[in-house]
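Hi, here's the filled form for the chain we discussed.

Project: internal
Contact: R.S.
Residues: 284
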Amino acid sequence: MKRILCAIAMIVSGGCRNVPDPAFTQLLEARRLAAELHVQFIKASNASDRAVLADTDEASVEFAKQAQVATQSVRNGVAELGSVLQRIGYADESGLLDEFSKRFDDYAKVDKDVLGLAVENTNLKAQRLSFGPVREAADGFRDALDAVVKGAPARDRARVEAETERALLAVREIQVLQAPHIAEADDAAMGRLEKEMATRQTAAREALKSLAGVSPKETLDAASAALDKFDKLSAELVALSRRNTNVKSLALSLKPKPALTAACDASLVALEGALAKRGFTGTR
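And the returned structure, exactly as it came back:
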């Protein structure tokens, strides 16, 4: 009789042996999903860090997109794994998954801010402005001052040279102050740097005004226009630096994010460990 039943079972299912246990199959699926969930979380975290450290807008945006895709994969993985754990009745593992999900929500809130700031790259843009257009404008002002000196009467040459040197020194000092302003994270400290810049800006203007009636008007007008251009670009630089998006995104990445990342990782390790300890009924 047993042989007959076995024969019937072999016809229906393909044999009495090597028939996968459904519970075992679902356990393997749960383990696979947990491992993939961990991989996607690591991808999201690493891509976010790269977005913060990227040195171009294009790279920041690309890494931010990768982080967002991986983050969505994590959320999808949580939902899929949760369904499997519920089907096989693994309450402890479901609890660990819920713990990870809550921790990941906290992580994702901070990471959203990190990525939003990182892709703006205002400090990086301010730095490029300082090294490029601002420097070129300062050099243009220097050249315009040279013309002022050359056009001055011989009897006034010494005075004109002294005043133009004072004006150029003020502009060069503003350039020097821009670097610490770009790197500064404290609003009050940035305010102090801006006051120093304003003082030097006034000094440059006063130096030019003191030459009215001494040097030719056209050369003074050209120098004043060059200084206007420099001041305008400097104001743009300060506005970008004030937003401080690179500094702020880096600060978030270095302070609250590591603890949140570690907490999520610990939950996933515990979940994978619990699934690894689960036995199965074997084959029939």
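Let me know if anything looks off before we file it.
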